[in-house]
Amino acid sequence: MNYPNGTKKNNLLVNHHENINYKNRGMTLESEINSSNEYYRTIDKAYIYKKPTPIKITKVDYPSRDKAVIKEAFFTIPSTTDYNGIYNSKYIDFEAKETKSTTSFTLNNIHPHQIKHLENISKHGGIAFIIVRFTTLNETYLLPSEKLMFFINNINRKSIPLNYFKENAYLLNDGYRPIIDYLKVVDNLIGGN
Amino acid sequence: MNYPNGTKKNNLLVNHHENINYKNRGMTLESEINSSNEYYRTIDKAYIYKKPTPIKITKVDYPSRDKAVIKEAFFTIPSTTDYNGIYNSKYIDFEAKETKSTTSFTLNNIHPHQIKHLENISKHGGIAFIIVRFTTLNETYLLPSEKLMFFINNINRKSIPLNYFKENAYLLNDGYRPIIDYLKVVDNLIGGN
């Protein structure tokens, strides 16, 4: 198991008096990643953004010349993953998902073309991965796309067991700034560790 | 002036019997870029996508369990540019705009934070640029972000004259597949030419 942030969460709670550990309670994985990305931008470390939700707009009203109101639209299946950007000259691409399960992560949480997308990115020299949070366990893992592809291509199961994460993914601990320092793991991936 | 595609458009019209030159008429720059990106993906050359239009959703109906209908939403200002992705291990990022002017491109067509974004990408090792089409002239240029920043930082004008494009940008000719082969120019930018 990997501990890129160095400390376990319990130690962090004992040693620090920042109120962030309380503030984080109830934050979704998405909001924690968005906040971390904002912090990375603030310190000019990386420019990684969440893509807007893809929708198909079917009706728009123009109550005035400059103001458009969308009156009917539908959510559509995303072509790619939710997050991408640049860090240390590298193209970064990932998807983030939560699961309530305490034993496994169901693969149909990710669209097949998103998995293909991650594989393409990796093949073309980008850093691709998924971040999965087991909310009930409060454990968050970063699984590199190579390990994801290995599972899909070699193991005939529709869900990835928690143990596969424990053995092949990096555990991401909560921190203060950023809340999830997933670029520390990316440093390892770039370094080939 | 740079002619990365080798031939001028008029030659292309004379020498080729592909019907694409007629089909292109009336195609917007956006649809041509989308089509070119799709082609690049088909031949496994690059994975560059247009981001979804950012909107703020204020009302959603759920007529049935699995079907959500957005009933009210508003267009919001994008945080970044429209297009990004990976090519040849490089992070690619750009914005595409059309203008009817025959003399200049008004800078307020691009949000200041988009310009800042392009500058950040470039600083961090990505390939950043804008593609501008002068629709009346039917001329399309790729202007590297460094040249864009030079203009903004050194020349006190609110619009970039066509001549600045002629001297500092790359002319993009229409082709068959892809319709706009802007990655040829990116090859030059990566090679440092």
Gyration radius over CA of chain A: 18 Å
Strand content of chain A: 25-35%
Uncertain residue segments of chain A:
1-24
Tell me which CATH architecture of chain A applies here: 3-Layer(aba) Sandwich
Q: DSSP helix count of chain A? A: 7
C-alpha geometry of chain A: globular
Q: What is the subunit organization of this protein?
A: homodimer
The CATH class label of chain A is: Alpha Beta
Largest sheet of chain A: 6 strands, mixed
- Please give the domain count of chain A: 1
Strand order of the largest sheet of chain A: 1-4-5-7-8-10
Order of helices and strands of chain A: HHHEEEEEEHEEHEHEH
State the end-to-end distance of chain A.
13 Å
Helix proportion of residues of chain A, in percent? 25-40%
By CATH, the topology of chain A is: Trna Endonuclease, Chain: A, domain 1
Could you explain how this protein is built, in words?
Two copies of one chain form a homodimer. With 193 residues, chain A is of the alpha+beta class. Chain A has a single domain (9-52, 79-191), classed as Trna Endonuclease, Chain: A, domain 1, CATH 3.40.1350. In chain A, 33% of the residues lie in helices and 32% in strands. Chain A has seven helices and ten strands. Chain A has helices spanning 9-15, 20-23, 29-42, 112-123, 145-154, 162-168, 182-191; strands at 46-50, 55-64, 67-75, 83-87, 90-99, 104-106, 127-134, 139-144, 159-161, 170-171. In chain A, strands 1-4-5-7-8-10 form a six-stranded mixed sheet, with helices on both faces. Chain A has a two-stranded antiparallel ribbon with strand order 2-3. Chain A starts with 8 loop residues before the first helix and ends with a helix. The model of chain A is unreliable at 1-24 (pLDDT under 50). Chain A binds chain B through residues 41, 44, 46-47, 49, 51-55, 57, 68-75, 78-80, 84-91, 93, 117, 120-121, 124-126, and chain B through 41, 44, 46-47, 49, 51-55, 57, 68-75, 78-80, 84-91, 93, 117, 120-121, 124-126.
